[in-house]
Amino acid sequence: MEKTFLMVKPDGVQRGLVGEIVKRFEQKGFQLIGSKLTVISREQAELHYAEHKGKDFFERLVTFITSGPVFAMVWQGEQVIALSRTMIGKTNSLEAAPGTIRGDYAVHTHLNLIHGSDSPESAEREISNFFKSDELFEYSKVIQQWI
Ligand code: RTP
Ligand code: MG
């Protein structure tokens, strides 16, 4: 089953949008298999955004992402990488459609609430940058047992 790395950025945590964001992925039908509130180190941030090293917005991006707690998550499901990117919305705030997370809640391109992996390779690299294997939980949903 495909896995992706999603992260509510410091602006999303500060604005109290963790619950709303988690709710959307749960209701879509994806399965949460790991999560943590954490403040990321500069080294971790530079590795996470390595593809953007050298770009004019890189420094601002690293400063922002390390500025406060983030809510890091691993979600599992069919086509979860592409579908979660669709649910997140476009990077450019002017193009993020209503109904998407960024389209509904974000105003600025640099304060855009949530990160999502853009490919299977990125997902694998990003998951291992944030989670140890014993922090991820594969489980079947046995709903009736808990109601
Ligand atoms: P993310 O990696 O954070 O999920 O965002 P993304 O895939 O939608 O966008 P990406 O191209 O990976 O860019 C990473 C973050 O850098 C900021 N950015 N600023 N032209 C700009 O000023 C610019 N381009 C990108 C955004 O905050 C974006 O989320
Ligand atoms: Mg990206």
Structure, described:
The chain has 147 residues and is of the alpha+beta class. The chain is built from 7 helices and 4 strands; from the N terminus they run E-H-H-E-H-H-E-H-H-E-H. The chain has a 4-stranded antiparallel beta sheet. It is globular, with a radius of gyration of 15 Å. The mean pLDDT is 96. The site of ribavirin triphosphate has 10 residues, from strand 4.
Low-pLDDT regions: none
Structural class: alpha+beta
- Read across the widest sheet, the strand sequence of neighbours is 2-3-1-4
Q: Number of helical segments?
A: 7
Q: Element order, helices and strands?
A: EHHEHHEHHEH
* Distance between the first and last residues' Cα: 26 Å
Instruction: State the total count of DSSP E strands.
Output: 4
Largest sheet: 4 strands, antiparallel
Shape: globular
**Helix percent band:** 25-40%
Tell me which ligands are bound.
Answer: ribavirin triphosphate, magnesium ion
Mean pLDDT: 96
Radius of gyration: 15 Å
Proportion of beta-strand residues: 15-25%
Quick summary:
It comes from Paenibacillus alginolyticus. Its cofactor is Mg(2+). By secondary structure, the protein is α+β, with helices and mostly antiparallel strands.
How are the secondary structure elements laid out?
Layout: E1 3-8, H1 10-14, H2 18-28, E2 31-38, H3 42-48, H4 58-65, E3 70-76, H5 80-88, H6 101-105, E4 114-116, H7 120-130
Antiparallel strand pairs: 1-3, 1-4, 2-3
Residues 52, 57, 61, 91, 109-110, 112, 115-116, 118 line the site of ribavirin triphosphate (RTP).
